[in-house]
Amino acid sequence: MKKNTQPTKRLPVFAALYAACACGLFALVFFVLYMLLHAENETFRVVLTVLGVAAVFTAALFLLGLFAMTVSSRRGRPPGTLRRFLLRRMFALYPAAIALGRVFGISKSDAQGSYVDMNNRLVRSLKSSLSGGDIAVLAPHCLQKNTCNLRVTQDVANCAGCGDCDIAALKQLCEKLGAHLVVVTGGTLARNHVKAVRPKAIVAVACERDLSSGIMDVFPIPSLGVKNERPEGPCVNTRVDVAAVEDAICFFLRGRA
Q1: Backbone CA torsion sign across 189, 192, 197, 200
Q2: Is 132-254 a CATH 3.40.50 domain?
Q3: Cα(215)–Cα(195) distance, rounded to whole angstroms?
């Protein structure tokens, strides 16, 4: 049975952390206003005024981003015209949101995973009609069975197709849809491949940490993240829902969410 890849209609964890950071910005605005009202030194008042105007403008932008996130959670699809704006706001508050999550007992992995979900929601608001050759599928080497001696990171064509891991299924899928598949050992090789191939869209398979950092690295290229499964722990014999990868590729091919 095909998994439901549609976003849920609840406000994601990352959006809640984003809201908390935005509230912090507004607290800074009120603090600046308080200091401005009680400042006697004229130079200090000018500095506070400039700081206050900047803080108000920044807080207003993040408030608009929060409103759009809330709307997207209720509608299931975010306003497409706000995608780039929202992604830039998410990037700006990403470190603060992750740090704030720890304060509230939210694990870094959960916050990063929610960030990936929010990114996927925004990307799926786009209209897309690409060819298979415009799409790069990036898969981590930990998908390969650790007892396999074939070097698929150098050339995925070296995969013998035994079916012991999901590399063969991904290879067959990308051959069928015409997408580029590369198995990488880390973020540096993934970035080098993106620079060499210059895809118009990316489907990435990885853990929450690598997906969140990779999505930011390749921006503004639209990318959909598919979280891997770790039945034996992180970075060893991981698996992936190949149907979810197919759904992501097909979205870029036909623009279906």
Answers
A1: positive
A2: yes
A3: 14
Give per-residue pLDDT as tens, 201-244.
Answer: 999 999 999 998 888 888 888 899 999 999 998 889 999 999 99
Residue 226 backbone dihedrals phi, psi, to 5 degrees: -120, 115
* In the chain, where the domains are located: 11-123, 132-254
pLDDT digits (tens, 9 = 90+) for 18-46: 777 777 777 777 777 777 777 677 777 77
User: pLDDT by residue (tens digit) across 175-207?
Assistant: 999 999 999 887 778 888 888 889 999 999 999
For residue 124, the SS3 value is coil
Distance from C-alpha of 249 to C-alpha of 253, rounded to nearest angstrom: 6
Residues 23, 211, 58: CA angle, nearest 5 degrees? 25
Our CA angle for 150, 161, 244, nearest 5°, is 110
Compute the distance between CA of residue 192 and CA of residue 158 in angstroms, rounded to an integer. 20
| pTM metric for this prediction | 0.75
Tokens of residue 45, six digits:
């008042």
Candidates 194, 201, 191, 183; CA nearest to 250 is 201
